[in-house]
Amino acid sequence: MLFESTIFGPIKSRRLGNSLGVNLLPPQAKICSFDCIYCECGYNFTNKDSHMPTAKEVAQALEQKLCELKSNDEHLDVITFAGNGEPTLHPEFEQVIDDTLRLRDDYFPEAKVSVLSNATLIMKPTVFAALNRIDNNILKLDSAVEETVKLINQPTGHYSVEETIEQLSRFNGNVIIQTLFFSGTFNGVPFDNSSDKELQAWLEALKRIKPKQVMLYSLDRETPAKGLIKATPDILRKIALQVQALGFDTLVTE
Questions:
Q1: What are the sequence ranges of the domains in the chain?
Q2: 3 state SS for 143-199
Q3: Torsion of CA 150, 153, 156, 159, to 10 degrees
Q4: What is the pLDDT of residues 152-206, one digit of tens each?
Q5: Is the bond preceding residue 109 a cis peptide, omega within 30 degrees?
Q6: Which residues pair with 190 in a beta bridge?
Q7: Over the stretch 228-252, which tens digit does the pLDDT of each residue have?
Q8: What is the dihedral of CA 29, 37, 244, 136, to 10 degrees?
Q9: How many CB atoms lie within 10 A of CB 173?
Q10: What is the CATH number of domain 7-252?
């Protein structure tokens, strides 16, 4: 499922409410620093016509849509950066965020600005600064076990769980951790990121990161890898109780 325009929606998000989406990646490509086996957009691919919109083009398209929504007296809960891959890969990401915050304040000052990211680029000063300025800095941590991340998230470049946790802790709590729980077998290797071993490592990571919220969810749409098993609502609720016992606000999406 690819998004064919820079601005899409508003759509009803399971976690965020009435959400206007922003796709910073090309409309007919999937570009990401992960290649997750469960991604609803499919596996990574590109083509010779792939083009990322400039910061100016994003601002123009966003303002046009916000003006239209305002004129129609529509409600907006959030502006969400998601789309066809990893939004922080955009070379002008910080400028895009600054423009979005300005336009949000002009048209829908009560709406939140959210970014859904896999956290692979938070070591970049401009990305870190931009994410620190938004309302919902939602960063992925599907596992705190290196081998599991490499199996289910398939980083396309260098990735270290320890380095990622250390970088996440630098937000000093101004971060929301999102984790998708599921199980299955991929390339002949079985996995279950809700197992006791996995949860112990993941909960220890949360203690270090100290997020303001933890979002728990599971599979909802068709996945590129076959045979993946959705975590049951009961599993998600049991994990939520363990997170809440650590003192962290928890949102479960079943």
A1: 7-252
A2: CCCHHHHHHHCCCCCCCCHHHHHHHHHCCCCCCEEEEECEEEEECCEEEECCCHHHH
A3: -60
A4: 999 999 999 999 999 999 999 999 999 999 999 999 999 999 999 999 999 999 9
A5: no
A6: 185
A7: 999 999 999 999 999 999 999 999 9
A8: -10
A9: 11
A10: 3.20.20.70
- Tokens matching residue 233: 């609502």
- Could you tell me the two tokens for 66? 């916000």
